[in-house]
């Protein structure tokens, strides 16, 4: 689905798919930890009391893509829908990989609770990013041009340790170990993929684009596996991610996208619904993250 001016129509479509076709999750072009906070809210598992609080995690530009009235209405609607469903509650998840530092914090928070020794190892590995603060582009620039050592080995080692110890770590969290470990494991994989993405973004565009959409496809596959054989997922992203790249000039440039990867994996089980615009307004700026 496209975003911007079609968002209200998309809200009605998503609601119908959930109530009439029994879809079990929404997976959006949003950062994994921020979206998971909404997931906890709509499934009555988090600490947020109101939908607007659950949306407050979206701080990265463009925050207005998710922190707006239409998304707020949908989040409130989804919580109300789940209220009397004590099992099979519909969740809300993110697919994107821009949340490197938020995902690092999420991994450390989980390990602090279940295995302090593992948390110390993770802190040591992730300290590789400390020289850059939260400036991921500075990290990408310095490492891609050989000005500093990359953190590639460290993030791969951390992800591999969590994969290797999956059963043990999942058992250590007493509340809802399966979901808690899945959230942490996906954050560790996100850190690994985001590190590679930021190193690639100062080279050719095709490489970084393909890394990003491949990550989203991997996250969707992991989510479907986690939710089980009855999973039916609404994927909510911009048209450039969901239209099959093989049918566009993107494919001619060597770019793939999420829509292509989903069709290749799921075949006729995947249905594409595209939106365009007819009337309305557009928010614009002369540069990325400049005043509107």
Question: What is the strand and helix layout of this fold?
Answer:
Layout: H1 7-21, E1 25-31, H2 32-42, H3 51-54, H4 69-82, E2 91-96, H5 100-114, H6 116-126, H7 136-144, H8 152-164, H9 166-172, H10 177-200, H11 205-227, E3 233-236, H12 239-242, H13 249-252, H14 258-266
Parallel strand pairs: 1-2, 1-3
Helix pairs in contact: 1-4, 5-6, 5-10, 6-8, 7-10, 8-10, 9-10, 10-11
Task: Describe, in plain words, how this protein is organized in 3D.
The protein is mainly alpha-helical and 292 residues long. The chain folds into 2 domains: 1-96 and 231-292, no CATH class; 99-203, no CATH class. The protein is 56% helix and 6% strand. It is built from 14 helices and 3 strands. It has helices at residues 7-21, 32-42, 51-54, 69-82, 100-114, 116-126, 136-144, 152-164, 166-172, 177-200, 205-227, 239-242, 249-252, 258-266; strands spanning 25-31, 91-96, 233-236. It has a 3-stranded parallel sheet with strand order 2-1-3, with helices on both faces. It starts with 6 loop residues before the first helix and ends in a 26-residue tail after the last helix. The model is unreliable at 1-5 (pLDDT under 50).
Q: What keywords describe this structure?
A:
single chain; 292 residues; mainly alpha; 2 domains; 3-stranded parallel β-sheet; 14 helices; 3 strands; globular; disordered N terminus
